[in-house]
Amino acid sequence: MSILTLNPAPYIIIDFDSTFTKVEGLDELAIIALKGHPEQDQIVQKISDLTNKGMNGEMSFADGLRQRIALLKANRSHIESLISFLKTKISDSFLRNRQFLTENADQIYIVSSGFKEFIVPVATQLGILADHVYANEFVFDEDDNIIGIDEDNVLSMDGGKMQILSALNLPGDVYAIGDGYTDYELKASGLANRFYAFTENIERPRVMAVAEHVATSFDDFLYDNKLSRSQSYPKSRIKVLLLENVHPAAQKAFQREGFNVEFVKGALDEDELCERIKDVSIIGIRSKTMITKRVLDHANRLMSIGAFCIGTNQIDLDEAAKRGIAVFNAPYSNTRSVVELAVGEMILLIRNIVGKSNLLHQGIWDKSASGSFEIRGKKLGMVGYGSIGTQFSVVAEALGMEVYFYDEVEKLSIGNARKLNSLEDLLAISDVISMHVDGRKENTNLIGKREFDLMKDGVIFMNLSRGHVVDIHALADAVKSGKVAGAGVDVFPKEPKTNNEMFESELLGLPNVILTPHIGGSTEEAQENIGHFVPSKLLEFMNNGSSYGSVNFPEVQLPKLKDSHRLLHIHANVPGVLAKLNHIFGKNNINITGQYLKTNEHIGYVIVDIEKGYTEEFIQEVKEIEGTIRFRMLY
Ligand SMILES: NC(=O)C1=CN([C@@H]2O[C@H](COP(=O)(O)OP(=O)(O)OC[C@H]3O[C@@H](n4cnc5c(N)ncnc54)[C@H](O)[C@@H]3O)[C@@H](O)[C@H]2O)C=CC1
Ligand SMILES: O=C(O)C(=O)COP(=O)(O)O
């Protein structure tokens, strides 16, 4: 039996600039030292070009280094500022694995063509031993200006890194990690057993082309070598695809944790999505992207979907559940924004402001009260009395309206709102009708010719829910006939995918019709809230297994994982799976520290916290249980 164990660490040789830190030290020193210099930009650019040529192996490294030093006009105080700056620029994955670096300090070296003066203070912060840092040294004049480099240091010459490694004569496996060509040379010369091209901060195609191994992060390197690490599975290997211009806070949240994030401004159509979703583990969308069964068939690694909005009708929720994919949304984060727009539109429409404003823009002064009303005392009818409907109802009552609602589910009224028993009753009684149902298929054309005919003459009609809920042709007719005196429409059966596409509709140019491009939830406040909320749900699910708040998954809120390994097992909801799982635990003598189970009509979700020390065979047996949809292990 093979106990699941971690390997002892090899000797690890780490490059500093753009590997251990996110930036190039000398380039940053130039920026600091040349601050205010009239040619700062040009000189910094020259230095950066020389750095890149050297890193890519396109020029003699030693020549480039001397040319860069000659361009620098730095002194000792600039180095102090550089050190403070670099401490904030340590690569995230090294920061995350401080424990590994400290515990294995004897095996770890930094070999860099950068300079000890700034490398030692930064590297030692994470437990690297000062005498394990091999780097160049500056030469200063008596006024502390940098005037050159220590010419006796082998690292100031071409092939210097190889000489250092050769002199170290390390008695075991040696793995080099770096972004530059000189790091690759350690492997090419046979001095290192492996070279990992490190791409967390920069991808150098010339280096990647020759590297046998690529490490997208230090976690990735540790995972590849079965070494102890902060992440059970390196997040840099997990792809996150964010569509429809979700708030930048979302991108930051995933990047902070080391995920590989791709950001797309618009929506994608089904064909594009089928292509792009391959290898993606988390996808973030808004209301436009349709996640159909066909898209899910192409989603070979998808674990979780974030709807950065309220509605989830654009996602095939059942198909996602059957594949073990958890879907989360932001059920309340733009409620208020929709309500405010609805209130504003209602007042503008009942006063016929749009027509008057358009006329005045043409210089026509049309001062008259005819066809303009107050909303006070008018009857507002709400179709759908959920989060938005109820909040709208409270605000409308505060404005002096009489509120009526119809919801197909039994709902208690908030304030003095009155419940009606049929849609027909509501249509007949209301002066203003506002749609706030969800976008399920069955609501297609909920309002059509028949329903408009049932409304009062001169009614104000608003749809800020979903486009397909209203038959647009019937609405256009009702406006033209005067049945509807004003309409506010924010959502349409066919909406452009991006701001670059033209919008077409029968409603264009109709009088007293406010058209808005699906912006009910598009306020800075709502988008920022959503940008924080949805990633937090997705990350909880990915990192901890918690599915609380999911719209298609059995909901489980789990305690933080402590001193245990957590096994997450998603299976088809058929009898006997739990019994089989428990049998395997018993047979393998697994000590359980916590167990949770929840099912819904499609799937069962079992979470078991166990003590370390289980075998590969045990894991294999769990994976092979009939009905298993997905299995993963967290620690
Ligand atoms: N324009 C925009 O930018 C935005 C639009 N929305 C849309 O608004 C919808 C409503 O949002 P919430 O109030 O948060 O959802 P919710 O789920 O809290 O409320 C929807 C209510 O509609 C009721 N309902 C559904 N079908 C019905 C029918 N045929 N007849 C009567 N009642 C019916 C439900 O029982 C539920 O009470 C969302 O699903 C979304 O599609 C949401 C946010 C922004
Ligand atoms: O929240 C919703 O359901 C909305 O309709 C808002 O959608 P959006 O994020 O603007 O595409």
From TrEMBL:
Xref: InterPro entries: ACT-like_dom_sf, ACT_dom, AHAS_small-like_ACT, D-iso_2-hydroxyacid_DH_PdxB, D-isomer_2_OHA_DH_cat_dom, D-isomer_DH_CS, D-isomer_DH_NAD-bd, HAD-like_sf
Keyword NAD listed: yes
Family according to the record: Belongs to the D-isomer specific 2-hydroxyacid dehydrogenase family.
Name of protein: D-3-phosphoglycerate dehydrogenase
GO molecular function: phosphoglycerate dehydrogenase activity
UniProt-listed CDD domains: ACT_3PGDH, PGDH_3
EC number: 1.1.1.399, 1.1.1.95
Cross-referenced PANTHER family: D-ISOMER SPECIFIC 2-HYDROXYACID DEHYDROGENASE CATALYTIC DOMAIN-CONTAINING PROTEIN-RELATED, D-ISOMER SPECIFIC 2-HYDROXYACID DEHYDROGENASE FAMILY PROTEIN (AFU_ORTHOLOGUE AFUA_1G13630)
SUPFAM superfamilies noted in UniProt: ACT-like, Formate/glycerate dehydrogenase catalytic domain-like, HAD-like, NAD(P)-binding Rossmann-fold domains
Reactions accelerated catalytically: (2R)-3-phosphoglycerate + NAD(+) = 3-phosphooxypyruvate + NADH + H(+); (R)-2-hydroxyglutarate + NAD(+) = 2-oxoglutarate + NADH + H(+)
Function: Catalyzes the reversible oxidation of 3-phospho-D-glycerate to 3-phosphonooxypyruvate, the first step of the phosphorylated L-serine biosynthesis pathway. Also catalyzes the reversible oxidation of 2-hydroxyglutarate to 2-oxoglutarate.
Pathway recorded for this protein: Amino-acid biosynthesis; L-serine biosynthesis; L-serine from 3-phospho-D-glycerate: step 1/3
Domain named ACT: residues: 566-635
UniProt entry keywords in alphabetical sequence: NAD, Oxidoreductase
NCBIfam families, sorted: HAD-SF-IB (TIGR01488), PRK11790.1 (NF008759)
Top EC class of this enzyme: oxidoreductase
